[in-house]
């Protein structure tokens, strides 16, 4: 009977260390597959918005396609058609859709 108790104790003795390892690996996986890519995308978006200049073709989050007519601080004027200009916030310009709409060379 003592042999049975000792065998059961030996089998369950590494439970705490195993749980810590499992929890740590889950956090590590979440960092590399969720947190890090999101931070990278935010950095790219910020860089894109800071580098917007006159003449760039962009798409807003609302789906308006236009060319940058002027840049004034946190706002830009988009020329949607000849003579039709719209003032929008820089943060309303979509990096993802602007990249897709520009023709590749």
From TrEMBL:
It is a single-pass membrane protein. Keywords: Cell membrane, Membrane, Protein transport, Translocation, Transmembrane, Transmembrane helix, Transport. The chain crosses the membrane at residues 6-33. Pfam families: YajC. Its main location: membrane. It is found in: Cell membrane. Belongs to the YajC family. This is Sec translocon accessory complex subunit YajC. It comes from Algoriphagus oliviformis. The gene is yajC.
């Amino acid at each position: 009977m003592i042999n049975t108790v000792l065998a059961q104790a030996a089998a369950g003795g590494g439970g705490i260390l195993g749980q810590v390892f499992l929890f740590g690996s889950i956090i590590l996986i979440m960092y590399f597959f969720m947190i890090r890519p999101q931070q990278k995308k935010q950095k790219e978006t910020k860089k894109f918005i800071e580098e917007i200049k006159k003449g760039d073709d962009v798409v807003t989050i609302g789906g308006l396609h236009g060319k940058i007519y002027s840049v004034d601080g946190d706002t830009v004027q988009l020329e949607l058609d000849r003579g039709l200009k719209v003032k929008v916030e820089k943060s309303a310009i979509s990096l993802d859709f602007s990249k897709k709409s520009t023709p590749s060379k």
